[in-house]
Design a protein that fits this description.
Blueprint: H1 2-62, H2 80-89, H3 91-94, H4 98-114, E1 116-119, H5 127-140, E2 154-158, E3 162-164, E4 169-171, E5 173-175, E6 180-184, H6 185-193, H7 201-216, H8 222-236, H9 238-247, H10 258-271, H11 273-279, H12 281-291, H13 295-300
Parallel strand pairs: 1-2, 2-6
Antiparallel strand pairs: 3-4, 5-6
């Protein structure tokens, strides 16, 4: 008799426990569903807002504006010895106004943290190498709001020319769709020190990375998206290619393919802007739009 009562009590407690557990489960399920719905609504609002902001930025760019972002950034100062490297070895930085130098330093500080430089063939990575490689990237994208190239943060640095197992050839540099940029330090430094030969290895390879990021549609500045068709129309015109070849201002390697033409045109834009504008004004104009930089105005300043 007592055993039956105990069994009934245990059964009742068990049923009560199961009932409470089911009630709690229902409450947690409801909270989870509300949270999921709220997250979905938040994501939808974010996507719509992002779309409207991009449209607004595109319109602003189309009417010659879209520069407000240059005044909005977190000031970051380089360590004195890194700033000395920049001032001593990077002519582009010296040519900037004091205001733009501050913005350049802020971006370079971010790039130094984000870029991972990996040595090969026992090369010892120095601060000079880190600063000058990162500064080359900042120089290329200085006219962009989004100045880092998404997916291209790993830089392999060789002492000099190297044998590439990917291309089965001896190279000075290469850029892979997977996101790897490979550079010869000897040629990188030469490209930075000699500023009038239209050869700048780091700018060349980072230009490849820029275009590959556009192809991947990942982390590329809106200006490149907006003006890519203008560039494509320009190089699709056979007479343009024939005229550029005939004048001989762009090096022959530029006409290997469309990717090399873009990278070589960017190098020439930075190294010989006045001559490029005089020889191929239509090319200078498109480069100025794509990169949002006017080197002629910089030289006159």
């Amino acid at each position: 008799m007592f055993e039956n009562k105990n069994a009934s009590v245990i059964r009742g407690v068990f049923i009560l426990f199961v009932s409470l557990a089911m009630e709690l489960f229902d409450v947690f399920l409801m909270i989870a569903m509300v949270g999921l719905i709220a997250s979905m609504i938040g994501l939808a609002v974010y996507v719509v807002l992002l779309s409207y902001l991009e449209q607004a930025e595109a319109f602003s760019i189309s009417i010659g504006q879209g520069h407000l972002w240059k005044k909005v950034y977190v000031p970051r100062r380089l360590a004195p010895h890194l700033e000395d490297i920049l001032m001593s070895h990077f002519e582009y930085y010296r040519s900037l106004s004091v205001v733009d130098q501050k913005r350049f330093q802020s971006r370079l500080a971010v790039a130094l943290k984000r870029l991972k430089i990996i040595s090969r063939d026992q090369l010892v990575i120095t601060d000079e190498m880190r600063v000058l490689v990162a500064a080359s990237l900042v120089k290329l994208t200085f006219g962009y709001r989004r100045f880092l190239i998404a997916g291209f943060t790993n830089i392999i640095l060789y002492p000099s020319e190297y044998y590439s197992h990917a291309t089965k050839s001896t190279n000075k540099g290469e850029t892979h769709f997977s996101g790897m940029v490979v550079l010869s330090w000897e040629d990188t430094l030469s490209g930075i020190q000699i500023t009038n030969d239209n050869l700048h290895l780091a700018i060349h390879e980072f230009s490849h990375a820029l275009w590959l990021a556009l192809v991947r549609d990942k982390g590329v500045d809106l200006r490149l998206k907006l003006y890519q068709d203008e560039w494509k129309r320009l190089i699709a015109e056979p007479n343009n290619i024939l005229r550029w070849k005939a004048k001989g201002f762009l090096r022959p390697y530029a006409f290997t393919n469309a990717m090399e033409l873009f990278a070589c045109a960017v190098e020439t834009f930075f190294e010989s802007p006045k001559e490029l504008n005089q020889t191929h004004p239509e090319l200078y104009k498109v480069m100025r739009k794509i990169l949002n930089q006017d080197l002629l105005k910089m030289q006159r300043a």
